[in-house]
C-alpha cells in the first residue's frame, strides 16, 4: 500500500476514482477496454466493521510508530530507523486516507441510496396524490351529475293517468313506459311538447282574429265621430226651438255636465234648489259658474297628482337650496291661503221678487274646511240711492245677518276647523269673511252639511237640505222685500214724511201735529253711549248685528229723541224704541212713568201695529204712533196746574174721558177707532 | 212674556199671605204672581227660587190693588174685585173664589180700582177708584151696601182709623176726606195743596199716599209728604223728598216711603230724611212689610220694573224677586 502513495495523486484529478495502481494498469492495458476502477465496487466488497477495526489498528500502529519515533528522536537515534518508521507512518497515513475515502464513499452511497429511496417514495406519494385528486374530482363530477336537475323537471307535466288517457299510443308507448321510468318521462315530455305546439298554433290564430276585430272597431269609431259634427249642427239649429218651447234641454244638459264636477255640498244645493225652483217657486233659478277645467284638475286620481307633487317637491327643494328660503311668515301665509282655498266652481242662485228686484246668492265651497259660504248682491229695478240712513240695509255684508236667530255667519260652524286654524295661526274666521263669504248655518244645511258640536261625522244629507230649502228661500225673499220696503220708507222718513199706508190709517187720529224732523242712522258704539238706552243694553236686547237709528220728533218747544234698535230679522222682531224728552227739562222713560208708558205703547203692541201682512209697515206705524202719543202727552201735561196763568203751549185737542188714571196717573195713549177718542189701557 | 214685555212691566201692588210665607204681586198686564218667601229666604235659595211659584192672568186691566184677609187674597182689576183662596193659590190652582163688581154709573169707560181696605169691625171691604166714589161691600154677603160720594176726581188711596172707625181717602182732586164708617158721612175734608208748607204747585195737587197711626196721618203725592196731627188738622212736619211719594207706612219710630226715584226713604217723625236706600226699579209704586211672620220679616218694594226688591235688613237690598 505504501508504494501506491505517489500514484494516488494523479487519479484525484480525474473525477472517476482512478488513483489506484489497478487503474493505471487498466489504462495501460489498452483503450479498447476502458476499465475504470470504481472504488465503489471495492466498497461493496468490504465490510464496514472490518474497516473500522483496520482503522483502529492503523491508528494504533501510527501511534506506536510515533512513539518510537519520539523515542528515537529523544534518544538521538539514527535517521534510518526514523526513515523506516516514517515510511511506515506514511503508509499508515495512506491507509487512513483510504479509509477516510471509503468512509466518505460509504456515506455518499448511503446518502444516495436514501435519496433514491426518498425519490421513489416521493414519486409514489405524488402518484398517490394525483390519484386522490382524481378520485375527488371524479367524485365531484359524480355528485354534480347526480344533482343535475334537468329542466324537464320544471315543466309541469300532466299527471300520469291523464297522460295515459290523452296521449296517442305512439307517444305514450305504454308497453315501454310502464316499466321504464325514464322512457315514461321522455314520453310525457314528448306529449307536452306536442300539446304546446298545438296551443301555440291556436294562440296565433286568436291573435289574428283579435287584430281583425280591432280594425273593425276602429272603423266603426271613425264612422261615429264623423257623425258628431252633424249632431252638433242639429243641436245648434234646435236651440231657437228650445227657447221657443221653453224647454232648455241643452242648457240643462250643459249644466248637468258641469255639475258632475261640483263638490258634493254644492251639488246637493244645486239639485235641491233647482228642484224647489221647478216645483214651488218659479222665481228661483240656479246656475253654475267658475272654472270647469280647474275643477276637473282637482278631481284627477290622487296617484298621478302625488307623483307630480313629489317630482315638483324634489325640484322645488333643489331650487330652494340655491335660492334663499321664503320667510316663515310667507310660508304661513301660503299655508293659510291653501287652507282657505275655494273650489273653482261656485253656484249662483237668483231669487226674483214681485217688483223685479233680484237677490243674487253666490255659494262657494271651501275645500279644506268643508264648509259652504255665501256672498250676496242685490239688483233692483229702481235706483236706490235716495236714503242716506238706508246705507246699511242692503249692504251685502250684513244683508243676510241673522236670517235665523243668532246666525251671524262670522265664525265657521264646523268645529274641526278650530284645530285646522290653530295649525296655521288663524285666530278668527271673521277676518276672512268679507273675502270668502259668510258661513251661515243655513247655508251648510242647504248643502246638506250638518255639524254637531262634538265634531261627529259630517255627511252630505240630502234630506236635510230638502227640509230647509223652502223655509230658507221664503226667509230670503222676505228679508229682501223687507229691506227694500224699509229702504223706500227710509227715503221718505228722511224727508220728514212718515209713510202710513191706507190700511193703517185707522190706527191713528186724523190730525197728528207732532212731526218727525230727523231720521239718522247710528253706529253700535254711538248707540250704546246714549244714556237713555242703558236699560235695553242691560236687558240684553241689543247686539252688534242690529241696526241703530235716531228719530227726532218735535212739536213746538218739545223735542223727543227716540233711539231705535232694528233687529236684522225685521219685521219678525219688533224694533225697540227708547225715549228721551227735552221739554222743560229732560225726562226719559226711566224718570217719567208716562214716557215709559209711551215706550210700552210703541214697543209692545205688535198685533195692532204690524198692519197688513207681511208686516212691513211696522216701523212706520210705530213712528206714527209715537207722534200721536207725544201729542197726547204734551197736551195733557200742559193741563197740569202749575200755578202759572196764561195760554198753554199745547192746547188740548184730543178727546178723552179722563186725563189721568191709576197710581202712576198715566195719560190716555190708546186711540180708539172710529170713535176717535183716547182711553187708557 | 217676552223680554220686551218684561222690560215694560210695572208692579203696582203686593200682599203677603196670612201665614207670611208667600208674597202675591200684581202688575200692569193684569197678572198676579205668587212667590214663596220661605224658598227665597232659605240658605240654599237659587236663581229659580226667586221666580214665582205661580203666575197667572187675573184681570184684563192692571192689578192696582191687592189685599189679604185671613183666608183670601183680594185683587182689584178693571172695575172688578176677585177673591182667591190662599190655600188654593199655594196649591197652584187659579180659580177665583168670587168676582164682584161695584155698581158704576157710567158705562163708557170702566173705572179702575186703586185702593182696597178692610174694616175689621163690621167685616166690610172698602174700595175706591176711578169713579170718584168709595164703595163699601159686606164681605159675608158680597153686597155693596153703600157708596161714599164727595171726591171730584178719582181716588188714589184709602186708609182706616180703627179707634174712631173713620175712613180716610185721598184723591186726584188734592183732597183728603175723612168719613165716618158707621154713618157713612163725610167728617172732614183737608185740601193739602192749600197749605203752603206742603204744596208743590210744579207737581200738582193730587194725594197718592195716606197712612195713619193713632192721631197721626201721613199724606203725600203732588204736595210733599207731610205728617199731620189729626186733632189739630195741621201739618207738623214736612219731609223734603224730591219726588212724588206713592206709598208711605209707619214702622216703629220710622216713616218709610216710596215713590218717584229709585230709593226707599227712611224718615223720622221730626221731618228729617234719615236714609235713602237704593233699589232696582227706577221708580216705586208699592211697599209692603211682612209683619205677620217673625221668621220672614222682610220689606218688599215694587215699581217700574219686573223685579221686586226684598229687604231682609231694612237698610239695604238683599235680593230681587223676578216676575
TrEMBL record, chain A:
Residues 304-318 have a biased composition (Acidic residues). It comes from the Eukaryota. Residues 14-30, 293-303 have a biased composition (Basic and acidic residues). It is found in: Nucleus. One of its GO terms (cellular component) is THO complex part of transcription export complex. Keywords: Nucleus. GO terms for molecular function: mRNA binding. GO terms for biological process: mRNA export from nucleus. Residues 1-30, 292-330 are annotated as: Disordered. InterPro entries: THO_Thoc5 (IPR019163). Belongs to the THOC5 family. This is THO complex subunit 5 homolog. The lineage of its organism: Eukaryota, Metazoa, Chordata, Craniata, Vertebrata.
TrEMBL record, chain B:
Keywords: Repeat, WD repeat. The keyword Nucleotide-binding does not apply. Coiled coil: none annotated. InterPro entries: THOC6, WD40/YVTN_repeat-like_dom_sf, WD40_repeat_CS, WD40_repeat_dom_sf, WD40_rpt. GO terms for biological process: mRNA export from nucleus. GO terms for cellular component: THO complex; transcription export complex. It comes from the Eukaryota. It holds the Pfam family WD40. PROSITE patterns: WD_REPEATS_1, WD_REPEATS_2, WD_REPEATS_REGION. WD repeats lie at residues 148-189. Belongs to the WD repeat THOC6 family. This is THO complex subunit 6 homolog. The gene is LOC107730738.
Amino acid at each position: 500500500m505504501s508504494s501506491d502513495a505517489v500514484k494516488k495523486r494523479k487519479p484525484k484529478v480525474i473525477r472517476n476514482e482512478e488513483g489506484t495502481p489497478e487503474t493505471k494498469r487498466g489504462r495501460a492495458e489498452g483503450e479498447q477496454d476502458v476499465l475504470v476502477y470504481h472504488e465503489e465496487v471495492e466498497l461493496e466488497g468490504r465490510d464496514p466493521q472490518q474497516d473500522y477495526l483496520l482503522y483502529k489498528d492503523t491508528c494504533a500502529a501510527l501511534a506506536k510508530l510515533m512513539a518510537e519515533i519520539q523515542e528515537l528522536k529523544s534518544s538521538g537515534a539514527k535517521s534510518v530507523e526514523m526513515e523506516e518508521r516514517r515510511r511506515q507512518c506514511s503508509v499508515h497515513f495512506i491507509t487512513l486516507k483510504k479509509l477516510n475515502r471509503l468512509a466518505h464513499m460509504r456515506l455518499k452511497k448511503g446518502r444516495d441510496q436514501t435519496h433514491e429511496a426518498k425519490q421513489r417514495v416521493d414519486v409514489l406519494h405524488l402518484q398517490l396524490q394525483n390519484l386522490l385528486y382524481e378520485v375527488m374530482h371524479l367524485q365531484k363530477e359524480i355528485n354534480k351529475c347526480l344533482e343535475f336537475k334537468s329542466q324537464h323537471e320544471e315543466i309541469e307535466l300532466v299527471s300520469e293517468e291523464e297522460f295515459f288517457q290523452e296521449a296517442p299510443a305512439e307517444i305514450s308507448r305504454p308497453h315501454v313506459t310502464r316499466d321504464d321510468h325514464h322512457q315514461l318521462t321522455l314520453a310525457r315530455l314528448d306529449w307536452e311538447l306536442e300539446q304546446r305546439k298545438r296551443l301555440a298554433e291556436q294562440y296565433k290564430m286568436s291573435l289574428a282574429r283579435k287584430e281583425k276585430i280591432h280594425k273593425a272597431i276602429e272603423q266603426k269609431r271613425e264612422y261615429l265621430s264623423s257623425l258628431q259634427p252633424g249632431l252638433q249642427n242639429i243641436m245648434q239649429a234646435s236651440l231657437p226651438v228650445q227657447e221657443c218651447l221653453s224647454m232648455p234641454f241643452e242648457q240643462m244638459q250643459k249644466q248637468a255636465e258641469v255639475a258632475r264636477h261640483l263638490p258634493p255640498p254644492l251639488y246637493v244645493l244645486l239639485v235641491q234648489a233647482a228642484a224647489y225652483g221647478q216645483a214651488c217657486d218659479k222665481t228661483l233659478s240656479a246656475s253654475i259658474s267658475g272654472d270647469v277645467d280647474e275643477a276637473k284638475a282637482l278631481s284627477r286620481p290622487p296617484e298621478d297628482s302625488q307623483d307630480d307633487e313629489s317630482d315638483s317637491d324634489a325640484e322645488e327643494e333643489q331650487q330652494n337650496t340655491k335660492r334663499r328660503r321664503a320667510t316663515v311668515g310667507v310660508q304661513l301665509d301660503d299655508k293659510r291661503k291653501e287652507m282657505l282655498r275655494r273650489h273653482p266652481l261656485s253656484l249662483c242662485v237668483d231669487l226674483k221678487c214681485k217688483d223685479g228686484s233680484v237677490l243674487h246668492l253666490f255659494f262657494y265651497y271651501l275645500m279644506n274646511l268643508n264648509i259652504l259660504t255665501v256672498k250676496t248682491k242685490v239688483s233692483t229695478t229702481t235706483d236706490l240711492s235716495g236714503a242716506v240712513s238706508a246705507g246699511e240695509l242692503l249692504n251685502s255684508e250684513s244683508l243676510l245677518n241673522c236670517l235665523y236667530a243668532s246666525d251671524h255667519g262670522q265664525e265657521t260652524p264646523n268645529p274641526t276647523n278650530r284645530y285646522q286654524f290653530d295649525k296655521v295661526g288663524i285666530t278668527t274666521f271673521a277676518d276672512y269673511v268679507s273675502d270668502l263669504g259668510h258661513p251661515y248655518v243655513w247655508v251648510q244645511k242647504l248643502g246638506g252639511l250638518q255639524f254637531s258640536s262634538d265634531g261627529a261625522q259630517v255627511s252630505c244629507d240630502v234630506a236635510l237640505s230638502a227640509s230647509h230649502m223652502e223655509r230658507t228661500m221664503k226667509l230670503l225673499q222676505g228679508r229682501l222685500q223687507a229691506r227694500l220696503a224699509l229702504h223706500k220708507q227710509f227715503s221718505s222718513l228722511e224727508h220728514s214724511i212718515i209713510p202710513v199706508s191706507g190700511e193703517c190709517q185707522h190706527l191713528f187720529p186724523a190730525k197728528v201735529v207732532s212731526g218727525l224732523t230727523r231720521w239718522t242712522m247710528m253706529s253700535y258704539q254711538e248707540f250704546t253711549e246714549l244714556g237713555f238706552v242703558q236699560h235695553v243694553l242691560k236687558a240684553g236686547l241689543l247686539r252688534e248685528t242690529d241696526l241703530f237709528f235716531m228719530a227726532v220728533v218735535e212739536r213746538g218747544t218739545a223735542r223727543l229723541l227716540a233711539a231705535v234698535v232694528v233687529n236684522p230679522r225685521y219685521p219678525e222682531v219688533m224694533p225697540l224704541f227708547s225715549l228721551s224728552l227735552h221739554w222743560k227739562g229732560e225726562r226719559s222713560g226711566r224718570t217719567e212713568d208716562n214716557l215709559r208708558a209711551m215706550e210700552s205703547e210703541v214697543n209692545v203692541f205688535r198685533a195692532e201695529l204690524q198692519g197688513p201682512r207681511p208686516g212691513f209697515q211696522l216701523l212706520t206705524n210705530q213712528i206714527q204712533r209715537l207722534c200721536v202719543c207725544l201729542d197726547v202727552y204734551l197736551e195733557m201735561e200742559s193741563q197740569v196746574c202749575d200755578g202759572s196763568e196764561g195760554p198753554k203751549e199745547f192746547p188740548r185737542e184730543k178727546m178723552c174721558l179722563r186725563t189721568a188714571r191709576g197710581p202712576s196717573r198715566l195719560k190716555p195713549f190708546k186711540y180708539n177707532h172710529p170713535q176717535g177718542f183716547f182711553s187708557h189701557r | 212674556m217676552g223680554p220686551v214685555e218684561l222690560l215694560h212691566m210695572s208692579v203696582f201692588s203686593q200682599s203677603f199671605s196670612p201665614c207670611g210665607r208667600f208674597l202675591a204681586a200684581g202688575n200692569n198686564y193684569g197678572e198676579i204672581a205668587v212667590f214663596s218667601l220661605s224658598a227665597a229666604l232659605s240658605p240654599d235659595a237659587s236663581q229659580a227660587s226667586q221666580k214665582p211659584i205661580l203666575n197667572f192672568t187675573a184681570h184684563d186691566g192692571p192689578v192696582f190693588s191687592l189685599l189679604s184677609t185671613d183666608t183670601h187674597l183680594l185683587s182689584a182689576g178693571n172695575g172688578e174685585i176677585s177673591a182667591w183662596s190662599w190655600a188654593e193659590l199655594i196649591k197652584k190652582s187659579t180659580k177665583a173664589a168670587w168676582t164682584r163688581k161695584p155698581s158704576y154709573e157710567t158705562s163708557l169707560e170702566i173705572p179702575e180700582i186703586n185702593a182696597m181696605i178692610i174694616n175689621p169691625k163690621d167685616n166690610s171691604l172698602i174700595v175706591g177708584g176711578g169713579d170718584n166714589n168709595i164703595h163699601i161691600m159686606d164681605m159675608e154677603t158680597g153686597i155693596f151696601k153703600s157708596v161714599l160720594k164727595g171726591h171730584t176726581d178719582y181716588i188714589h188711596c184709602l186708609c182706616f182709623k180703627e179707634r174712631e172707625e173713620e175712613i180716610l181717602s185721598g184723591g186726584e182732586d188734592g183732597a183728603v176726606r175723612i168719613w165716618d164708617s158707621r154713618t157713612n158721612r163725610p167728617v172732614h175734608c183737608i185740601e193739602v195743596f192749600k197749605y203752603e208748607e206742603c204744596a208743590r204747585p210744579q207737581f200738582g195737587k193730587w194725594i197718592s199716599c195716606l197712612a195713619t197711626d193713632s192721631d197721626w196721618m201721613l199724606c203725600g203725592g203732588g204736595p210733599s209728604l207731610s205728617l199731620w196731627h189729626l186733632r189739630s188738622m195741621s201739618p207738623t212736619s214736612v219731609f223734603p223728598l224730591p219726588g212724588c211719594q206713592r206709598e208711605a207706612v209707619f214702622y216703629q219710630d220710622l216713616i218709610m216711603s216710596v215713590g218717584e226715584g229709585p230709593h226707599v226713604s227712611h224718615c223720622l217723625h221730626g221731618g228729617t230724611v234719615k236714609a235713602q236706600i237704593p233699589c232696582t226699579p227706577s221708580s216705586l209704586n208699592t211697599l209692603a212689610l211682612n209683619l205677620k211672620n217673625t221668621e220672614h220679616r222682610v220689606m218688599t218694594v215694587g215699581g217700574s220694573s219686573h223685579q221686586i226688591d226684598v229687604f231682609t235688613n231694612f237698610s239695604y237690598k238683599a235680593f230681587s224677586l223676578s216676575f
